[in-house]
Each structure stands twice: as C-alpha cells, then as structure tokens.
Amino acid sequence: MPVLEVVNLKKYFPVHKGVFLRPKGFIYAVDDISFIVKQGETLGLVGESGCGKTTLGRCITGLYDKTDGHVKFCGEDIFSFNSKQLKEFRLKAQVIFQDPYESLDARQTIKEILKEKYIIHKKESKINIDEEIATLLEKVGLQRTDMSKFPHEFSGGQRQRIGIARAISLNPELIVCDEPVSALDVSVQSKILNLLLKLQEEMKLTYVFISHDLAVVKHISDRIAVMYLGKIVEIADADSIYNKHLHPYTEALLSAIPLPDPKIKKRRIILKGELPSIQNPPKGCRFHTRCRHTMAVCKEEEPGLLLNNREKEHYVACHLQELK
To answer: Exposed, middle or buried, 315 (CB in 10 Å: 0-12/13-18/19+)?
Structure first.
C-alpha cells in the first residue's frame, strides 16, 4: 500500500467581484490530479511559478480543503477524518516551508519553537524536553547552545535546519518539502539537500519535494511529476525524465538548466507567448498556446495522462505521443 495516494484531486478558488462580492469564476489551481508515493520514496514536483505546486502540497497535508477527489494516507482519505483523527494525521505528515524566516516565530527562542509541538500533542511530560531538543538540533547540524537563541541570530541555511528539525521532531512518515532550498545560496542548497537525504535514510521518510528547479529535483528525487497550469503533464522516474522525456514542456524546462562550463553550447527552447490565465485555461491541451508541435487536435481535445512505457511507469499527457 502506498503511503500517499492522490485520486482525481481538484482545488478551485472562487473569484469574487462587484459590490456584493459575488462569485464570477474560479482559479483552477489543482485540476484532476492523480499519483501515488511509495514508502521511502521521493516524488519531485516541478513546474513554473503559479502552476499549482504549493496548493497541491497544502491539500496533501490537509492545510487546504479539497473541491473534489481524494487524498489517501496509508489507505485512508484524510478529508473524511474527524478532529481527533486529523490531529493524529498531523503527527505523521509534516511540511517544510519555503521561507525559513517567515515560518519561525521571531518572538520565540528555538527551544520554545521546537517545544510547542510536543505540548500540542501532549508528549512533553513523557520525555526530557531539553535533552530531546538538544538531540534534535544536533541531528540537523546545529549545537545544543542554539536552543536559547532567536531566529534572527541564524543564517538562512541555519534557519532552514531549524524548520527541518521541527518537521522531524515527532517522527513523521511523510514530509512535504515546499521549495525548501529556493531562498538559499547554491553552496548552502547542496548541504540542505544532503541533510534531507541523510534523514530520509535514517528515519525511513517519504518526501514530496516541490521545486521549480529541475537541477535540484534531480539530485534528490526517485520520480518526478511535471505540472503545468494545474495539471500533471508527465510523470516518470528521474532518469527517464532527464534522458527520455516525452512532453514538449518538460523538454523546454530541461533546456533552461544552466551548464557550469561556458564552452559547452546548449540548444535553448524558448517558449513563445505568455503563460495563460489559470482562471481561464485554454481549451484542449493547456500547453498548446506555447507548444511548437501544436496540432489541430491539441486545440480541441484535452489529452489524458496515459502510460507510455510500462517498464519505467512513464506517463505523459500529449497527443503527439499518442500518434507514435
């Protein structure tokens, strides 16, 4: 049984206009998405800003309610949980947020920040809290003496380590990493990614890793799902996405990855036109307005996410691949 199973998930946000703020339409942030994540696996979720990655991550952890569909954690739909079950689910599913400074209370010491979760879940009386927090900080590469400091006394990378410590404090099974390294320097990014991989191996964690940077996702992911305007357009193992990608959008994203050697010439694929409105997505394939392979059928019919390679479990939503 997979740790996480997303089935036809939809999340629409109403758009209110006028004096009486009546609903005039919807933002189709997540539109009929399905995938599974196995125990101990890392699923990378990539796409342009505004494609719905963060919304999907917050639906997975129950921070946003659904419009339709299911999110199953170990076989149980989280949207059917009562308050007690939801609190238990919070122990097992955690989030690492993008901005480590905004996600930490500037008025609290690190000890108070990390202690709060133990108090909420009534675990404080069962352990030596000071020793537990000290061990937690050492596990993420910080020192015991850091307990008495405030968030502003740390660098960006150190603050993200504190966010990771908070996420793993109660031994979760699933962690949604919402662009955890995008606000950090490149040299610090690699250290945080290596820390996440080390913790995954030690604690048998399962990750959903959200990022717009395919180079970062390749380093940490077992499988990669590519999102565009609220839809998954391609999903496969990391090697297949990088070496045998099938969707034109994935191809364009990969061509934008910079190479460290300036002497190597790389063919860039420049997407023409503006990103369509997620409130009024194009008819048919949502990518057809920017795709260089557009056919008549692309403008009329929306392609399904179909299995292209059974051995590699490679799925793609593209009419061009259906003709091959």
So the answer is: buried
